[in-house]
Amino acid sequence: MASVHESLYFNPMMTNGVVHANVFGIKDWVTPYKIAVLVLLNEMGRTGEAAVSLMERRRLNQLLLPLLQGPDITLTKLYKLIEESCPQLANSVQIRIKLMAEGELKDMEQFFDDLSDSFSGTEPEVHKTSVVGLFLRHMILAYSKLSFSQVFKLYTALQQYFQNGEKKTVEDADMELTSREEGERKMEKEELDVSIREEEVSCSGPLSQKQAEFFLSQQASLLKNDETKALPPASLQKELNNLLKFNPDFAEAHYLSYLNNLRVQDVFSSTHSLLHYFDRLILTGAESKSNGEEGYGRSLRYAALNLAALHCRFGHYQQAELALQEAIRIAQESNDHVCLQHCLSWLYVLGQKRSDSYVLLEHSVKKAVHFGLPYLASLGIQSLVQQRAFAGKTANKLMDALKDSDLLHWKHSLSELIDISIAQKTAIWRLYGRSTMALQQAQMLLSMNSLESVNAGVQQNNTESFAVALCHLAELHAEQGCFAAASEVLKHLKERFPPNSQHAQLWMLCDQKIQFDRAMHDGKYHLADSLVTGITALHSTEGVYSSCTTGSESNDRGTQAFTEIIDSLSENQEHRNGDQCPAVCGRAVLAILLPYHCTARAPAGAGPLQGVPATVLGL
Predict the structure, then answer these.
(1) Residue predicted with more confidence, 470 or 404
(2) Residue 180 scores a pLDDT above 70
(3) Proportion of the chain above pLDDT 70, given as a percent
(4) Are 408 and 378 in contact (CB under 8 A)?
(5) Long-range CB contacts (< 8 A, 24+ apart) of 119-126?
(6) What pLDDT score does 467 carry?
(7) Which residue intervals define the domain Anaphase-promoting complex subunit in the entry (predicted)?
(8) What is the mean pLDDT of the chain?
(9) Which one, of 357, 335, 457, 437, lies nearest residue 396 by Cα?
């Protein structure tokens, strides 16, 4: 396969072995896999006794788009996909390819000559402007541009492609004759070998422009909506590196590499890929073409803004502030109000510990509404609701504010924010002690279907909102003593969000908290104390609260433990991130410390609360 790609398309794009950046100048080229797809299309268009039924044609039409846009696959896998939709057609395709591969070169020539007949007649089988019609025209045009030596190498590759498929078919038939146990072990090995060979085939040469765009869009959508169905980080990075090897200036591949590195918390590689994305965006002229002379500056300011968001994600707040200041400066010079609104939102995220942060947030919401940015406006409203909830505002006012944000969600079909809003309502009802309402909101989210396009047979996406709702559901069952039900919910969470996924930390913390609360209720304080370390590693504020809870029940810890807790709270208030709420935790700690402070265990006038700033306790 590699020799075919090299002979057909490397020569026009290589000088002294160096691949040029215009590798996607050629829209499509002919490969043995695409010849097999052309045979499938030709067989589908046949009429008479061998005609495909309506239901089978419908299933085949659903199969065609990924076959046309996806990367090349082995002939064996192609047969299996066709057989699942129409067994009779799979047999016809297999016979047709066999006759072509075992025949002569003129058979392949005649096949491409006959493809043009699909567009002839008053009622052609295929319309020229349809998806299938465009694919056929691209293949016919690409084949007609080949020299004789290139046609011969293509036919040789087709024969090798067919022989590999036949060899795999014979191996599968031999395995059926062996014992079940030996057959299963051999099948696992063969499946592993097939996956490796498929990877070698897909990586043997550059993807066409459509194949690359389809692959990147598919993986990006899976990373956003259902990470478990995306390629593993190592496999995805290998595919991206191969793609960038043939086209180093493919900006979208660098951005997907940035998202992939975020999955494994690789700050160096994430920064490297993000900077390369904006560098290539400028070099290729994509921004300047769509935005005129402002394209260059637009890339620079959004590069600085994304760099600030990246540093904030990893807790590098000083670097984030510097990058954000740079983005604000460039945006002000260009009078880019949209970019300034994004910067204002991130200013609030970085400045939540300040007392006047709510003023900044209110201003951000008003400006977002003024400039017609519903996504930013809704996020601002939800952040404002969260801040007011921590400040102890009444629940009815918070729900009224969320109702206004819900109007924006449904008006603009912001599916992701609809899920976030319901998850936040669940958290607010739990914060105010309304477990029934919290349970209702969690179940409402879990029973909703996604507004975004997902895979066939799937109505929901495995996003953070669903993970949060399931965690609330597990904790609500545990609070009522239904630990078996909570365990079942956690089991579902572990299956839906594997330990290596980016949202796995949510159920890990939930599991630790449930075990901690159960140990405290059972009076197993030493067991609860051993869980504090794990909770602290996942969430520092929850760790402070758990440590204080165990300290209040242990006579051997005394005043020193509470002094350490207060110091930890003070440190969290100075260096906290967006997911912590020291005011709420401070009040909870105060509720635990007061009984201890008033008992004989604390010396009169010298309790652990003496000299503690009120701001530390959220008062």
Answers:
(1) 470
(2) no
(3) 72
(4) yes
(5) 125/45, 126/41, 126/45
(6) 92
(7) 254-353, 458-490
(8) 77
(9) 437
Q: Are 423 and 470 in contact (CB under 8 A)?
A: no
Residue 572: per-residue pLDDT = 56
Quick check: is 240 in a domain? Answer: no
| 320 belongs to a structural domain | no
Q: C-alpha angle 295/297/300, rounded to 5°?
A: 110
pLDDT above 60 (res 197)? no
| Helix, coil or strand: residue 356 | coil
**What is residue 6's DSSP assignment?**
I
* Helix, strand or coil, per DSSP, at residue 19: strand
Task: Compute the distance between CA of residue 90 and CA of residue 83 in angstroms, rounded to an integer.
Answer: 5
The residue segments making up the domain with residue 578 are: 523-596
Give yes or no for residue 250 having a pLDDT over 70.
yes
Tell which wins on pLDDT, 20 or 163: 163
557 assigned to some structural domain: yes
* Contact present, 405 and 382 (Cβ < 8 Å): yes
- Helix 582-598 and helix 558-574: axis angle, to 10°? 160
Alpha-carbon dihedral 264, 265, 266, 268, rounded to 10 degrees: 160
CA distances from 231 to 78, 159, 235, 237, 396 (A): 20, 31, 6, 9, 44
3-state secondary structure (DSSP) of residue 15 = strand
Q: At what angle do helices 267-283 and 251-263 cross, to 10 degrees?
A: 170
pTM beyond 0.85: no
Quick one: pLDDT band at residue 516, thresholds 50, 70, 90? very high
Query: Is 390 among the domain residues?
Result: no
**Residue 576 near residue 534, CB atoms below 8 Å:** no
In eight-state DSSP terms, residue 122 is S
Q: Which of 98-112, 251-265, 543-557 has the lowest mean pLDDT?
A: 543-557
User: Distance between CA 110 and CA 100 in Å, rounded?
Assistant: 10
**Predicted pLDDT at 586:** 54
Q: Output the pLDDT for position 491.
A: 94
Q: Could you write out the DSSP letters of every residue in 158-216?
A: HHHHHHHHHHHHHHHHHHHHS-HHHHHHHHHHHHHHHHHHHHHHHTSSPPPHHHHHHHH
Q: Which residue has the tokens 């996956």?
A: 195
pLDDT classification of 45: cutoffs 50, 70, 90: confident
Question: What does 499-548 look like in DSSP terms, one character per residue?
Answer: TTSTTHHHHHHHHHHHHHHHHHHTT-HHHHHHHHHHHHHH-HHHHHHHHH
Q: What angle do CA 342, 223, 407 make, to 5 degrees?
A: 50
Query: How many domains in the chain?
Result: 2
